[in-house]
């Protein structure tokens, strides 16, 4: 069973994750029993066990997912001067990274074709 609609995702610290998987690793309880006891998905518990066995408690730290860095600016109607500068700076950084990787914009492609 997933979280209720409109609910928030729970963020687990490495120590909380370890407390969930410790009895399983020591053989005191099964993944299924722990899943029923805590209401945590058994697949998530299994993933935590796998990560712990590969890299210890350090591997249980949450990984940040890359997102759209411009999203927080593009949704707002009015930006302060500082936010406008940050937005422009971010756009230029993204463009710079794309150029380093060899990506070009449509305008640049069209200009090359005209030459």
Give structural notes.
The structure is a single chain. The mean pLDDT is 85. The protein contains 6 helices and no strands. With 115 residues, it is mainly α. It starts with 13 loop residues before the first helix and ends with a helix. The protein has 2 domains: 14-60; 71-114.
Keywords:
mainly alpha; 6 helices; elongated
Query: Roughly what fraction of the amino acids lie in strands?
Result: under 5%
For the CA atoms, what is the radius of gyration? 23 Å
Task: Indicate the percent of residues in helices.
Answer: 55-70%
Number of helices: 6
What's the main sheet like? none
Write down the overall geometry. elongated
Low-confidence blocks of residues: none
**DSSP strand count:** 0
The pLDDT mean sits at 85
Along the chain, the helix and strand elements come as HHHHHH
Return the domain count.
2
Give the structural class: mainly alpha
In whole angstroms, the N-to-C terminal distance is 60 Å
């Amino acid at each position: 069973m997933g979280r209720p609609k409109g609910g928030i995702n729970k963020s687990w610290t490495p120590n909380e994750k370890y407390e969930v998987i410790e009895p399983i690793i020591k053989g005191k309880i099964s993944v299924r029993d722990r899943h029923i006891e805590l209401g945590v998905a058994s697949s998530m518990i299994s993933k935590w066990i796998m990560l712990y066995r590969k890299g210890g408690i350090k591997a249980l730290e949450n990984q940040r997912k890359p997102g759209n860095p411009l999203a927080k600016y593009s949704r707002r109607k009015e930006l302060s001067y500082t936010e406008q500068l940050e937005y422009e700076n971010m756009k230029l950084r993204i463009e710079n990274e794309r150029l380093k990787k060899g990506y070009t914009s449509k305008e640049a492609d069209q200009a090359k074709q005209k030459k």
